[in-house]
Automatic annotation (TrEMBL):
Taxonomic classification: Bacteria, Pseudomonadati, Gemmatimonadota, Gemmatimonadia, Gemmatimonadales
MF-aspect GO terms: 4-hydroxy-3-polyprenylbenzoate decarboxylase activity
Biological source species: Gemmatimonas aurantiaca (strain DSM 14586 / JCM 11422 / NBRC 100505 / T-27)
Chain ranges of the 3-octaprenyl-4-hydroxybenzoate carboxy-lyase-like C-terminal domain: 332-454
GO biological process per UniProt: ubiquinone biosynthetic process
Pfam families for the chain: UbiD, UbiD_C, UbiD_N
Name assigned to this protein: 3-octaprenyl-4-hydroxybenzoate carboxy-lyase
NCBIfam families: mena_SCO4490 (TIGR03701), UbiD family decarboxylase (TIGR00148)
GO terms under cellular component: cytosol
Family: Belongs to the UbiD family.
Source organism, top-level taxon: Bacteria
Matches recorded under InterPro entries: HBDC, UbiD, UbiD-like_C, UbiD-like_N, UbiD_Rift_dom
Amino acid sequence: MSLDTLAQFLDAIDRAGELHRISTPTNVHLEITEITDRVSKMHGGGKALLFEKPILRDGTLSAYPVAINLFGSMRRMSIALGVDSLDEIGARITQLMDMKVPDGLLGKLSLLPRLLEVSKFPPRVRGGTPSCQDVVWQGDEIDLDKLPVLHCWPEDGGPFLTMTAVVSKDPARGIRNVGMYRVQQLGKRHVAMHWQRHKTGAEHMRQMAERGEKMPVCIIIGSDPASMYAASAPLPPNIDEFLFAGFLRRDPVRLTKAVTNDLEVPADSEIVIEGYIDPAEALVVEGPFGDHTGFYSEADLYPRVHVTAVTMRKNAVYSTTIVGRPPMEDFYLGHATERIFLPLLKLTTPEVVDYHMPAEGGFHNLVFVSIDKKYPGHADKVMHALWGQGLMSLAKVLVVVDKEVNVRNPVEAWWVALNNMDPQRDVRFTMGPVDVLDHASRAFTYGSKMGIDATRKWPEEGFTRAWPKVIEMDDATKRAVDAKWASLGIGPLGAG
């Protein structure tokens, strides 16, 4: 059964022993961040936290509990998407992509269930008053200071909404986009929208500016967990994130029309901030912000959002996240994307066996890739292919290893890579776009990248010596020691 609301998700992770409730009054200014940071760095990501008595910046008690670190473990990420293993979703995508039409009527009919699986998940608009509009603030009632928006780090430019799903539409084609962008609160009725130039929301704003029109937006805070995740997923611009969320949860997302604009939002959202951007207005200063790299990103100019309404459920919960020095919750969201989108990566680079972005790399700084090497220079081909793939184009360091290497274990991957590489022979450098948050690049969003060919070298690649074997005990001895291990009194394997 799919999880339709944030409340259901909280109940599910509570039953799984993955939620810790905090009744001690805790300040939204820095304190919640410090507690969450310590918890998220515990083994396995720590527990999700529900702060039941957050203290607002004016010293009063908030009416809305704060839920944080919701997706911050492998177990909770799987619960959010209704699977035992995130690889199950990748397997579903692989099956759907393998759509070779068989011969004969019975063979063709056998495809129907898979075709119907895709077609039955489009989002559906629901009539009546949705629960996300149990409470509606408009006009002078709008006061974002009543929400427990976190001021995360000491040098942040202000309080930020972080776990968002921002809805906008392509003005020409009407295609919806839902993106997870950070949003800085500027006052009671205004926020700044941080969408980088390559994001779909920013493209929608450029189109609205050309038309001389104001741009409606909705900022969703808390909904069904599949939709919350989908907002972070690197989908193509023409794929509706709510359709993808429906596929993930095997149940359509139920939408409703916003109160003050024509956009649609999940009907059971916790909180929705409705508003508009006037592209003719001057941009406003947004930031600095303590970012997922572990460093502050600099202040820059971004569009102002005029808030026209705030709607919410009765007894709404404010969901949020923090980013900073890894590992943190965003690592687990990124890991889900890594697992789910592997089959799509293999469409264009089928020699890829697996890949992994370790937490220490902050996603874009380091990517391990294992390949089924078939010819000399194969690792170079894969490097350049990956640098041409969407957000993978921002990868600063790509390390390519052979297919048997477990890239999900960075210790093993580095051990193999550092043994297999000759720095002058095997390191490649190239130029291209880099992450906006890369403070070390030679220019804003532009810099160099490094590829390391850590595969076994072939004679055609200039290696004429014998390639050594990896040290490994024979199977018979392993089995014999396994059988007598308990009698040795050393303790369980892996303990200590």
